[in-house]
Amino acid sequence: MTEPITAGSAVHPARAEPPAAQTRRLRAEGLTVSFRLPDATVRAVSGADFEVRPGRCLALVGESGCGKSVLAHALLGLLPGNAEVSGRVLLEQDGQELELVGAPQAVLARRVRGRSIGLIPQSPATHLTPVRTARAQLEEALRELGAARPRERADELAERHGLHPADLDRYPHELSGGMAQRVANAMALAGDPWLLLADEPTSGLDRPLVDRAMAALRELCDEGRAVLLITHDLRAAERVADDVAVMYAGRLVEAGPAGKVLHRPRHPYAAGLAAARPDRAFVPIPGMPPELTRLPDGCAFAPRCSAAGAACAVPPPTTGGVACHHPLPEQDARGGGGSPDRDPLESRRA
Amino acid sequence: MLEAREITVRYGRQAALDRLSFTLEPGRTTGLGGPSGCGKSTLARVLSLMLRPASGTVTVDGRTVRGWRQRAPRELRTRVALVYQQPRLAVDPRLTLAEIIAEPSAAAGRADPDRAAALAAETGLTRDLLTRRPHEVSDGQLQRACVARALSLEPRYLICDEMTTMLDASTQAHLVAVVEAYRERSGAGVLAVSHDDVLLSRWAHRTVRFDRP
Ligand SMILES: Nc1ncnc2c1ncn2[C@@H]1O[C@H](COP(=O)(O)OP(=O)(O)OP(=O)(O)O)[C@@H](O)[C@H]1O
Ligand code: SF4
Ligand SMILES: [Mg+2]
Fold first, then answer.
1. Are residues B199 and A278, on separate chains, in Cβ contact within 8 Å?
2. Which of A153, A271, B1, B148 has the fewest CB atoms in 10 Å of its CB?
3. For the residues of A153-178, what is the DSSP string, one character each?
4. The whole model's pTM is what?
5. Domains, in order of start, for chain A
């Protein structure tokens, strides 16, 4: 039978986890999200299995519209009313297990959002209320989290995230893209969550700032936090992620150690994505993106896949972390390029 | 030519651009690189007639710009189109994607549903997305609609300010190819503003770099 794609679960032998963190883990099994529209159903996430744990960074990559942001929002119960969520998401912490799918909003607000799981939303400028200063919004978040002296704490957070405290007194439209990003980072970490969901945290930053942001994420991991990084920047993912999961049409189609998935992908979509990078072939994957309202029964990538055959009319099983009937062979699988892996595959398999 | 001469723009007391001159030629793609905060987006907004400089002149094919934003004469405004980094801040949230793409032609009294549909397909928007509103699509899908909208009036100059930062590698390569195909068939001038030097080296004919002011 089909083995689930499990990303982020390999034990890292070199990096010891702090003892308090050992009981923490987030595990999704068969996470599925669809949106009901008047005349159609959008299948945004289909049966995602993954795991995130302290000390590790899992990067989620894939075509725009494939379901990455919806997946992140589903973990926090932040989807609109027309969304239907099924499957399981277990949050293990402090010796307890909390099922997040279907959890009451009050529980999510009191115990999960901001406290256990912080979210840096995509396009942060659009998530700030335009009529209130960044400070008013950050202080409100801090008060909700029960901070004793929100004003001092806000200044402290600002400085830690590379902002001048006076920057907080600006209204959202007076913040540059990079500043809005830093305000969002400060908000997400205000409640000291152990798991951070970072949705495109570097778009709009130049290379030195991207590098700094990635180093900061890595530091969070090394301090014992877990990071789920959603990014289009495969060079950034390469620098910081331990594991990479590739999503296509709402499914995780390949997952594994970062070096392997980014440099020697085996799923044809993952290989096409890797080859499209501007530092590689810079050619788009041919054909149109899938319509999530009319997904085929078999592999959703088939209309664009040069390896497609008759077998592809039925859903591919997942073997070795790859959901494909005809994966590229292990030895000569390539996505172009050959920079050394951050961490050799062998050491992770120990 | 789209020309900016001796442009100065200040935010508060700080000069974002200080007597800067810049020329965008038709038929070619000019890259504009440089670090965050160096004034690239400010120049992009001046060139697309969205921001009035404190001093200096902008001319579009020899005509001097005297009104900005809504006060720019229509035939100048429609000669220059801007695609900008954050699609969610660039669209009316009440409109469907189809309406967003058709909006400029409708406003110009040149509604052309066939062309709007062709542009949607060219930018990779499937039919199911066109009846949705911005909050019902992803950021990248919305950006595809913004590119289609920018091309709808066949601008003579296209300013792409960090157009692809929220797009995956394949969609980025696709939209760059769409813009380049448009430039080749129309002879338009393209300004590609990006932090990503690797991207500019693959996309632009020549690249100008700004340093911090
Ligand atoms: N409220 C909604 N109603 C219907 N469909 C929706 C809604 N929100 C999102 N979708 C659809 O769900 C799919 C997944 O969207 P999502 O925002 O997760 O994409 P993404 O992978 O984050 O893309 P990007 O890289 O562009 O940010 C998209 O095809 C989108 O059109
Ligand atoms: S299952 Fe078939 S169509 Fe799908 S990616 Fe693999 S080879 Fe291509
Ligand atoms: Mg997204």
1. yes
2. B1
3. HHHHHHHHTT--GGGGGS-GGGS-HH
4. 0.90
5. 19-130+188-253 (3.40.50.300), 131-187 (no CATH), 268-342 (no CATH)
